[in-house]
């Protein structure tokens, strides 16, 4: 008995078409090009999930440095004094304080510089 594969192929093609929703031209209409585009998009997504962490950390560092300089110190001196004062605030929280709570950030800087 012969095996008819039309149903399976159609299902596979539909899966590719669902994944390429929002793509343009051949990346959406052609199954072969769509599969290639989806594979590449998933590679970019994996890579950029990691790069986003790198980007945000550099942004936080820049914000902390700008706020620290308003209080007469630098980023590296502030981080060093926080470590010696045993204040464990991560850079995300420090940047948030620097932008939204300047008085709290000033208190942190003063507390760290005392010790």
Give the assembly state of these chains.
Answer: single chain
Strand content: under 5%
Question: Helical region count?
Answer: 6
Biggest sheet features:
none
Contiguous runs where pLDDT drops below 50 for at least 5 residues: none
What separation lies between the terminal Cα atoms?
85 Å
Structural class: mainly alpha
**What's the helix-strand series?**
HHHHHH
The tally of beta strands, per DSSP, is 0
Q: In CATH, what is the homologous superfamily?
A: Ribosomal protein L20, C-terminal domain
Looking at the structure, what is the overall shape?
rod-shaped
Describe what this molecule looks like in 3D.
This protein has 115 residues and is mainly α. The protein has one domain (7-114): c-terminal domain of poly(a) binding protein, CATH 1.10.1900.20. It is built from six helices and no strands. It has helices at residues 6-19, 26-29, 31-70, 75-84, 91-100, 102-114. The termini are far apart.
């Amino acid at each position: 008995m012969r095996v008819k594969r039309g149903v399976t192929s159609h299902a596979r093609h539909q899966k590719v078409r669902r994944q390429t929703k929002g793509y343009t031209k051949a990346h959406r209409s052609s199954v072969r090009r769509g599969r290639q585009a989806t594979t590449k998009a998933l590679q970019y997504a994996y890579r950029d999930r990691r790069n986003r962490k790198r980007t945000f950390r550099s942004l936080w560092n820049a914000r902390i440095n700008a706020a620290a300089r308003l209080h007469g110190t630098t980023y590296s001196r502030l981080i060093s004094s926080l470590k010696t004062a045993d204040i464990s605030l991560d850079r995300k929280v420090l940047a948030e304080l620097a932008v939204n709570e300047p008085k709290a950030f000033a208190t942190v800087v003063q507390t760290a510089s005392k010790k």
